[in-house]
Amino acid sequence: MGWLAEALLFLVPFLAYAAWRRLNPGIEPGPRLLLAAAAGVVLALAALLWFGLSRSLEAGIYVPPHLQDGHMVPGHTEPARPSAAHP
After folding, report:
1. How distant, in Å, are the alpha carbons of 54, 63, 64 from that of 74?
2. Helix (H) or strand (E) holding 27
3. What is the pLDDT of residues 34-51, one digit of tens each?
4. Is residue 83 a part of any domain in this protein?
5. Backbone dihedral region of 86: left (phi > 0), alpha (psi from -120 to 50 degrees) or beta?
6. Assigned domain for 87 exists
7. pLDDT recorded at residue 83
8. In a domain? residue 37
9. Using CA atoms, how far apart are residues 7 and 82, in angstroms rounded to an integer?
10. 3-class SS at 78?
11. Would you say residue 15 has pLDDT above 90?
12. Dist. CA 79–CA 58, nearest whole Å
């Protein structure tokens, strides 16, 4: 059922534009609206890039989430342990 909500959220802007075009057949979007839409796309891409670069995990061994003493321990990274085989 979650996929239906995701599909609707994806389709809402396209349906809104189609409804606007249907109700205003002779009117084209103005340059201000197009510039605002382009600025929104650029800002969204910049935010996604910043978020992706700022949320990286530090180097080490990833420990997945697990139960410990009846409490959920979130996933985290631990420093890599030096192996005994390579002194």
Report:
1. 19, 9, 7
2. none
3. 899 999 999 999 999 998
4. no
5. beta
6. no
7. 65
8. yes
9. 48
10. strand
11. yes
12. 9
pLDDT, position 79:
84
Q: Which of 7, 31, 6, 28 is nearest to 17 (CA)?
A: 28
| Torsion, CA 26, CA 32, CA 37, CA 39, rounded to 10 | 160
Closest to 29 measured CA to CA, from 38, 50, 2, 5: 38
Q: Which whole number is the average pLDDT over 67-87?
A: 80
Q: Please tell me the total count of domains within the chain.
A: 1
Residue 13 covered by a domain: yes
Domain region containing 57 = 2-77
**Encoding tokens for residue 74?**
């979130």
What is the Rg, in whole angstroms, of the alpha carbon atoms belonging to the chain? 24
Tell me the one-letter amino acid at 12: V
DSSP β-bridge partners for residue 63: 76
What type of residue is 11? L
